[in-house]
Amino acid sequence: MSENAAAAVADTRPQWFGHPAQLARLFTTEAMERFGYYGMRALLTLYLADHFLFSDQTVTGLYGGFTSLVYLTPLIGGLLADRYLGSKKAVKFGAILMALGYFILCFGGEAAKPWAKIDGQQYAVSVEAGDTGKTQFITVDGQKLAIKGNEDGSVSLLAGDGAEARRIAKGGFEAGGERDPLMVTILLIGLSAVTVGNGFFKPNISTMVGSLYAKDDTRRDAGFTIFYMGINLGSLGSQLACPFLADKYGWWAGFLLAALGMTLSWYLIQFAGPKLAGYGEPPEDAPKRDLAIYAGAILTVPLVWFLFTNLMAAPPPVEGEGFIGYLMGLPILGKLLFATFLLSIIVIPIWSIAVGTRAEWQMMIAAIVLIVFNVVFWTLFEQAGSSLTLFAARNTDLSVFGLFDLVPAQTQFFNAIFIVLLAPVFSLLWQAMGRRGLEPGIPVKFGMALAGVGGGFLFLVWGSQFAGPDFKVGLWWLAGLYLIHSIAELMISPVGLSMITKLSIARIVGLMMGLWFVSIACAQYVGGLVARVASVETVGGQVTNLKVSLDTYTATFETIGWAAVIIGGVLLLISPLLRKLMHGVK
User: CA angle 485-564-153, nearest 5°?
Assistant: First the structure.
């Protein structure tokens, strides 16, 4: 009898595919929560750009700030659950806040009204669809003129026959949107509620899964594998359905479906009844602080709202100020993230010298080095929700074999479907290579992942040379990027948390786990900054020159692609040294 079978026989609880039956309820709860989150995330960038008419820099900066806080708040939510609430109460409360946030996002009001300023004079902009796409027009002295951006940064105003009626020099043309401040406030409150709620939900549902198994239960890793499959299955469905509804009926419909998915997640955990009795309960000696914690969390929503508004109001960095000047010019959220991360990667190794053995210190150094490389990977990988989504909307032919067109936001589903299909393959591959002693070590997997994420961007850049006369790249080049990125993700994501637990000094594993999440939060924030480099001038939510747009994106993707390949190569070169510092940890 196998060890897994023996564990199942010893477990007298009802079983679900050889695991405690409670796993089924947690699996579906997580799947529906991820359905809501990834459905909302698929819409967010285009919602900010097309409905509110924010500039690309504001859109990508706000997106990066939001996703960074999504990874940062679980540190606090996990701590409060461990000491006071218990995991189950924290998950229930987090689900309520997240569902409320998604419902709030349904109220976007009327779309912002586009305008353009020429020499200080403001004109209303109209956007009209034609055979070759959408064109923006303004009326000057009774003449209707089309707006066309030029490669040198100037703007041409074209008469009906296509002749240039006027050319505005670079810097003389300004575009924006007249939006309702109340609607912007509602938007940011919705995002803030999702952020705070996620801090309670995200870490604690995983904790509940872990509580289903004894420490020596050999089914634990397999149970988490099944649980994480729920993440990808949930995200796969919503990244198709939410954009479809938003495109067909309006943004409110896409966000409403995300809200309903999150509400179902709350229902599954709230009314689990005896199915989850005894799991995720508060510590026996924990003081009763429930109401105070709930009130404090609700009061935190305005604080997160302030961080978002501060982020949106921050001016772009000024060239020539140096690294310190750059950090000082960051908004409050950026300062907090970078200060925490930089302080941690400096102080923790110094502290480990004093309290640990030489071997433990070397293992901690290896962990810190890999965490730094982890920031680079997720910075580039998370372009999926920002610059790559905008690229899909502007410079990608979304036709599927001429049968139908995808909605731009639906392109994010490629990652989810590739993960679902490839995860079992990689699991079998690593096991087979492990039996033969050929499985790559952790540093090699990290290096291959970094080279892979860069290779994905270079693959898309290669495909851009085959763009049609409409300056749009075939959908399958973008799908190929996501395939390569998914393979890279499978080389780094599953081993990251395991690496932390193996290399950290036992007494600070929790602290190191927190640093891991801070590194991902920093990556999300920096990812927004990278996406800002690919910003394109828009009028009425539309670019005025698709060639300029294509050239801007491909130039950015080529730069970060080669940078990732080089950084991955550096990690592969130093991997033998890191293996020595890891003292046999694989």
Answer: 95
